[in-house]
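Milestone 3.1: sequence recovery, worked example.
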């Protein structure tokens, strides 16, 4: 309470003020990033999903979920080693380098369904700032990863206080299908259970919009929560290793330059806080992409399968490699029927306001928060072999001098849609 005329100063410890007391300790659990059909060379794409840490009994069972058989009995699957407070991930890339066998492993399916459900519930509870009750009034919601066979669908049952995941047995014509392996399906059905706990009357007779709202919210959570999964949103393709940027340099041989550029890319992704789900390096000749454009286009088209959008340099950037890659990206996107967002790089350096060579009518501005802008600055600084001289000679000069870098420190990004 402030007294008139007296300035009140409240002492707070900055770290304590910023600390979110609702944020829980988490453990990373391996799950399939999207659906078993989304694969790379190592099999289905998996990610480490943060899951609230807790005591795990067989099932697995936590304080909020029980993974059970169709009869409602906890499964014998143990995710803990000895002590129920100690979780061991048996399906991480280190523990099991080959992911091909994961979908057929019932123990993994139990972990997958448990981890995605627990992560989804935690997202709700963190945003709401309070625990979400289940409609049953019981502390735990049951998850049945292998409900009755013959249904390629899953559903939330209020009566059974459970989410039941259907599955289709293996046939000569196709592999077995388990809905308990699909991130979207699990997040969608758990959202129904969450909403039913928060607003039980939404399922009572009423205008049709009520049920439509249930479905829409569940779909939105499933869709948006995928973006909280580290790396799922991004697959990286690098056409060259950038070895030709300092042709006359005595300080840095092209092979060493390529090695450093690859490490710099990894560091810059870490600075941005993103971990690509897939990464492809084509190692095509730097500054000579036009000479291998057919191969480039084929590789980009292969890499762009099952993506929602392709981000690439703009094909009018007045840099031969950027233009070749921009054209390849457009061809790949057209082949898969997905949009391209093209980003200008050198354009900022040679164009002028209202420049007729630039498709300004297709320009879209993305505003950046101060945190994102700072992360981008850190990411750019990681490319030491481009932003700083690589040696003392004139041939070693930075390819991106400060006046060029200035263009990349604004509070916006611009793409051509
Ligand atoms: Zn639904």
């Amino acid at each position: 309470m402030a007294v008139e005329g007296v300035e009140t100063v409240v002492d707070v410890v900055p770290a304590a003020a910023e600390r979110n007391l609702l944020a829980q300790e988490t453990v990373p659990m391996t799950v399939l990033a999207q659906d078993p059909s989304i694969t790379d060379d190592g099999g289905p794409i998996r990610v480490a999903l943060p899951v609230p840490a807790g005591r795990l009994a067989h099932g697995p069972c936590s304080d909020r979920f029980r993974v059970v058989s169709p009869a409602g009995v906890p499964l014998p699957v143990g995710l803990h080693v000895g002590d129920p407070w100690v979780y061991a991930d048996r399906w991480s890339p280190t523990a099991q380098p080959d992911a091909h066998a994961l979908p057929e492993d019932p123990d993994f399916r139990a972990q997958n369904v448990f981890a995605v459900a627990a992560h989804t519930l935690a997202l709700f509870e963190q945003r709401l700032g309070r625990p979400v009750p289940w409609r049953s009034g019981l502390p735990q919601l049951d998850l049945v990863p292998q409900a009755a066979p013959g249904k390629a669908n899953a559903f939330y049952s209020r009566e059974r206080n459970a989410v039941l995941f259907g599955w289709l047995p293996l046939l000569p014509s196709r592999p077995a299908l388990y809905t308990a392996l699909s991130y979207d399906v699990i997040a969608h059905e758990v959202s129904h259970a969450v909403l039913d706990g928060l607003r039980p009357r939404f399922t009572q007779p009423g205008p049709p919009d009520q049920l439509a709202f249930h479905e829409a919210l569940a779909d939105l959570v499933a869709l948006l929560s995928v973006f909280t999964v580290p790396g799922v949103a991004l697959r990286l393709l690098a056409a060259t290793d950038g070895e030709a940027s300092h042709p006359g340099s005595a300080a840095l041989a092209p092979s060493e330059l390529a090695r450093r550029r690859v490490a710099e890319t990894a560091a810059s992704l870490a600075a941005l806080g993103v971990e690509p789900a897939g990464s492809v390096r084509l190692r095509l000749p730097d500054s000579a992409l036009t000479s291998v454009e057919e191969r480039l286009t084929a590789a980009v088209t292969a890499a762009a399968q099952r993506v929602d959008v392709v981000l690439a340099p703009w094909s009018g950037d007045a840099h031969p490699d950027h233009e070749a890659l921009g054209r390849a990206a457009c061809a790949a996107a057209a082949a898969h029927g997905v949009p391209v967002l093209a980003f200008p790089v050198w354009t900022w350096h040679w164009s002028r306001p209202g420049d007729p060579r630039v498709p300004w009518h297709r320009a879209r501005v993305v505003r950046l928060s101060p945190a994102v802008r700072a992360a981008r600055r850190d990411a750019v600084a990681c490319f030491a072999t481009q932003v700083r001289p690589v040696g003392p000679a004139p041939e070693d000069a930075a390819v991106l001098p400060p006046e060029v870098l200035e263009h990349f420190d604004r509070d916006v990004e611009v793409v051509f849609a």
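Residues 18-228 form one domain. The first helix runs from residue 14 to 18.
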